[in-house]
Design goal:
Blueprint: H1 4-17, E1 22-26, H2 71-75, H3 78-85, E2 86-91, H4 93-96, E3 98-103, H5 106-115, E4 120-123, E5 128-133, E6 139-143, E7 146-149, E8 155-156, E9 166-167, H6 170-174, H7 204-219, H8 225-240, H9 248-260, H10 265-278
Parallel strand pairs: 5-9
Antiparallel strand pairs: 1-2, 2-8, 3-5, 3-7, 4-5, 6-7
Helix pairs in contact: 1-3, 7-8, 7-9, 8-10
């Protein structure tokens, strides 16, 4: 008889080989902290909130941000132990280029049949996952019994489903953003480092060029946006976090670029705070 651990791991390896970014879930459907420093939330991060903590991992190891197609990561290292405790395989829909409309009950399914175009459907324990081609902002409780899982989220892998995948409809997008034209980036809520002024070790143009490059790096991210934002914040703070030349206007520019890629103001603040903590600022 094949051990359940091997079934889950082998399933994850097969999915990863087919380009689906995967991660292990615990028996209660929560993601693991996937490195020794972060196991059981020892790093002080928030794996249940899908936010990396201030650990020194080479890549994000919490929740959706840890999803990967790398077979070495899936089958060895910290994940080798995670599969022994895992209850399911999950994936990051946004990085896979899809959106999951999670319908929790019969009433939600009835609504979807009336409001949304037919698409690939996967049966769940309580309802159905409707999977569309395209990504959007994730949100829970967009209406009774309906969650949206896409960017910065994860969904359980419950099989390939049936039916032909359709393009993400405007009806689904409208569940999260009623009028995209009125959406405005939220200003940062973190203070700039004390001691503003010119950077003492380089010309002022060095800071401006660094901020512009950081904005470009975030804007051009095509996958793992949250990880890119965190690493970019870390790089900016490494260069300028101690000399006091960063102003709130500079931080606003970085936050605006991140929010344009789908990051929430809260995720921006968390990433900035975690980067400062990692650098001892």
């Amino acid at each position: 008889m094949t051990h359940p651990v091997l079934i889950r791991r082998d399933s994850a390896l097969t999915l990863a080989a087919n380009g689906l970014p995967v991660l292990p879930l615990s028996a209660d459907k929560r993601p693991f902290g996937n490195c020794p420093d972060c196991r059981d939330n020892a790093c002080g991060g928030r794996p249940n909130m899908k936010t990396p903590g201030p650990c020194q991992c080479p890549r994000p190891c919490h929740g959706w941000a840890a999803a990967t197609t790398d077979p070495d990561v899936v089958s060895s290292g910290p994940w080798a132990g995670a599969w022994r405790r895992a209850g399911a395989v999950a994936y990051h829909p946004g990085e896979a280029g899809v959106t999951v409309v999670d319908l929790d009950d019969a009433e939600a399914i009835t609504w979807a049949r009336e409001a949304l175009p037919p698409t690939r459907t996967v049966a769940t324990t309580r309802g159905e996952h409707w999977i569309y081609r395209g990504t959007m902002q994730s949100a829970n409780g967009v209406r009774t019994g309906v969650d949206i899982k896409s960017s910065m989220s994860y969904a359980r892998w419950l099989g390939p489903g049936v039916g032909t995948m359709a393009d993400l409809p405007a009806t689904a997008r409208a569940l999260v953003v009623k009028d995209p034209a009125v959406v405005r980036p939220v200003r940062c809520t973190v203070p700039a480092p004390a001691g503003g002024g010119q950077c003492p070790h380089r010309a002022p143009a060095y800071l401006e060029r660094g901020i512009a490059m950081a904005e470009q790096r975030i804007t051009e991210a095509r996958s793992q946006v949250h990880a890119t934002v965190y690493r970019t914040f870390l790089a900016v703070l490494s260069a300028h976090g101690r000399c006091g030349c960063l102003t709130e206007a500079h931080i606003d520019r970085l936050f605006t670029a991140a929010q344009a890629k789908g990051e929430s103001a809260r995720h921006c603040t968390d990433a900035w705070t975690n980067a400062r903590t990692a650098l001892g600022l």
